[in-house]
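Margin note from the TA: students keep mixing up input and output lines. Inputs are the sequences; the output is the structure of the whole complex. Example:
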Amino acid sequence: MGPTFLGVRHHSPACAALVARVIDTLRPAHVLVEGGADLNGRIDELLLGHELPVAVFSSYRDGLRDGSREPMRHASWAPFCEYSPEWVALRAGRAVGAAVRFIDLPAWDPAFASRRNRYADAEVRYADVVARLCAEFAVDNVDTLWDHLFEAAPAEGLQERLAAYFDLVRGESDATEEDAAREEYMARWVRAAVADAGERPVVVVTGGFHRAALIRLCDPAASDPAPAVWPEIPTLPDGAVGGSYVVPFSFRRLDAFDGYQSGMPSPAYYQHLWDHGPEGAARELTRAVVERLRALRQPVSTADLIAARTAADGLALVRGHAVPSRVDILDGLASALVNEALDVPLPWTARGTLAPGTHPAVVEMVAALSGERVGRLHPDTPAPPLVHDVTALLERLGLDRAGPVDLDLTRPDGLERSRVLHRLRVLAVPGFARDSGPRTGVDPVLTERWRLSVHDGRTGALIEAGAYGAVLEEAAAAALADRIGAAGSDVDVIAAVLFDAALAGCAELSARLLEDVVRRVGSAPEPAALGRVLAVVLSLWRHDRLLGTAHSDTLGAVLAAGVTRALWLVEGVRGPGLPADPGRIGALVAVRDILVHCGLDDAVHSGSLAVADRVAADAGAPPDLRGAAFGFGWSLRGEASSVERAVRGAFAPASAGDWLAGVFALARERVLAAGGVLDVLDDLLAGLGEEDFLIALPALRQAFTWFPPRERETIAAHVVARHGGAPMSLRLPEPADLVAAGRALDARVDAVLTREGLL
Amino acid sequence: MSVDGLQRPPAEVRFAGELAALRDGDTGDRPPGWALSLRAARTFILGDQKAGITRKFVGDPSLIDRALISLATSRGLMLVGEPGTAKSLLSELLAAAVSGDSTLTIQGGAATTEDQIKYGWNYALLVADGPSTRSLVPAPLLRGMAEGRVVRFEEITRCPLEVQDCLLSPLSDRVLAVPELAGTDTGGTDSMVFARDGFNVIATANTRDRGVNEMSAALKRRFNFETVFPIADFDTEVSLVAQEAGALLHRSGVTAEQRRDVLEVLVTTFRELRTGRTGKGDAMERMTAVMSTAEAVSVAHAVGLRGWFLRREPGTPADIVSCLAGTAAKDNPDDLAKLRRYLEQEAPRRAGEQWKALHAARHLLPG
């Protein structure tokens, strides 16, 4: 009897139910499942009785053969939940006494080099045919299409419909080399199983995308008559380190894969569908959404719920579903609960992560779909290697006892221990608190003080962190990558993560992550925060030999992206009446420093100067920014045409101080060196009327604070000498604001006297 | 109705053939008072190539599903969105599909009064005979209720609040009182008009008008809100712009076809300034001016006209810059600054000769 090939979509309850039915009916001798064949010896470990979701985490690092490059690293997950067809196949196969085996290449095989989620949707890579099917059935996207064709459709004929669907998807596209290699390998297992089973049935459960190819490769008439023997399980290449182990997983992470890595969304909904059927799932989803909204004190009336239910039933009817499907319920809830215009489309009309600006009620709906379930491993599960790695490290470095630890970061052993502790801190392993040490900023701190304590939760936290990597450094880097993923466009958070990465000694980010950081820096919303971040990153890039980040490529790329973005933002600030803002001036200072120190290419240089010239001449820009832009050009070019004209042109009493603040912030040295400008300023100030002077005074005082006291004294001495005074103590007998207040009072009295004709 | 010489016949006339075909082949259950079943109405708007029904609205199919369901329930349908997102077209199509008639339309505005919505009087008859059904002039709402048809209310938020609120009892109690008829010889039976099956209201509102005449919470509750978004897919939008602008140019006597890459630059510019996000995902500021697909079509039309009648060629990115300054940035200096910044800083980062040309033409912006 030939093998039965079940093509499934990973994490589909409908497929899982089909797998269970087929295995129960056929009672096969062999059940073959898509999954790393290197795990075959450890299926017992998977079936110990964990609380799902769990995942098989695989990590890999190749040997450094020529020393000329970084070792290649790769980490991936194969997640299982209760309704995963693969999981059901393992359990049902065991239950009927079949031999259960994984038949795919190991996760470290080059065929998986770009995969982080083994059970991602393959058809997403073949978008054309899927788009045509969506148009044909008039649905929004592939997930809705799937619900329509399979999850919300009757179970009769499911197997045939699945086959037709996947044949269509596969039929039009050439599989990649990676897919072909995997299929070739899987087919060898199938042939061996069929030969071994003799007359008894064999069930093969794989992604539907591979089904047609496997049937072709296993056709006894077509395939070469090579002896059907069990294939060898590939072993790791020389010098490479890698392994797979079971780790707890969560619905949140399952839903967080995106792009080519994504699988079926909304795990909590499909769990309900698996547990309670479509009616029950509808009820549970509605209940979860309402509970969440009411907990946030959002009104959800009974009338709203009736309207939502009516709409969902109606939508199911229009779309031809016997009971409301996932999107029917969501659409019904959105119709009934959202009574204002939305800023971004409903997230379930397109794939991908939530867009900023999503309606709060819709955010809760998506959260309810995603769910909060977290898996837990059976106590007998072997601990992931991270636990052993950390225990050994702490012992070797003498960090395994409670008490304070002082580290000198300039010594190699101090730095090594500091990095280990920071990595543990980044992974949120309890019991490691830092009391003092380097912070973001320029002040150099060379020592660190930590407080270690013994904490019950340490092992648990390490097991959870085991999902990030097999050794501490990898795990910390992956956790930092996660934090960058969650940071959104908050560049302050990104700066904190980059600093943590520097402390933990994982500052060189992977290319993918770097792209992500660069993208986020490229969409920072306002110049002040971006300026702060760039200043921190620049100081890490320039100076930090201590942390080993000086001239790092990663930080260089962040700086280049930051420059482009800062210039864009600076040109967009409007408001001729706005007061000076040191934050946005700081952004231009940061850009200038980067241009001076980082050697960006000439196009960036000339582009920046062009932006600065436009801003300096733009009457609609705030005065401080115009001044800063003028100073930017002056400082970078080393000269400026007609400085005097520019100063005179900008010298309106209400804005002169703000304009000068900008100039001084960027071109302080030039102002001092070119004595002429000081003289011009002195003349202009002397020419101000009493009232104008008082208007200009507060901003002028602010502007001059950009000069350190010593330089202020130089200026004062210059001015005094200019007016023929003798060198003298420049300290006023009273605080300056008191003097200013006194002068204001004098001016008022004079004005009153003049008005009354007494003067 | 004779279609000849009409600038724009209503949807039920333009698509009379398709509606008839759908009616004939319609086997589904019709909601009470509807001209088509829900599925046939859906097909009318989303199209069905095999049945020869054209697609009339580019957008998420689920939006149409939700809109139709709202109309079949006891709540009205409120279409909201940026200007130029085809809300009025959608409301016309929905009314044509549901009632076979899209002409019961109230155009909202600052001067809209209740008698343009509910009913008015023929004053000559009113003075001669007193209030009677003969002297009553029904307005769209009264007719829609009495005849069981869909009433369209365009730009509802342009109306003063008290005028908007006259929809409350027709929508919740499904009844319209004509108190003037209460004491007349018919015994007052005409003084209450009860809505027949098939009556509902499709209102449209512009998100730019948000806050001008904020709807009352009571009225909001009686509507299901559906937001109509600009076209999400780039290629779809380019094709639509090419097709619509092509038709307009043809009518203007221009025979040169526009270059696809020039239109792509135009549509990209519109999309990025509209969403405040570049194709790569970098955030920018949105323009305050309307940058809808409809505006893109009109700019593409103007670009084609300039190119053809000034130089006998299909139009270049330099024409785009000239036209953008007048049509998109209008007289708003902030928008002009945003546009200038886009041309100065964003355009040179794009690859392609048309982008280079766009960047090179930046000095054509005024000021």
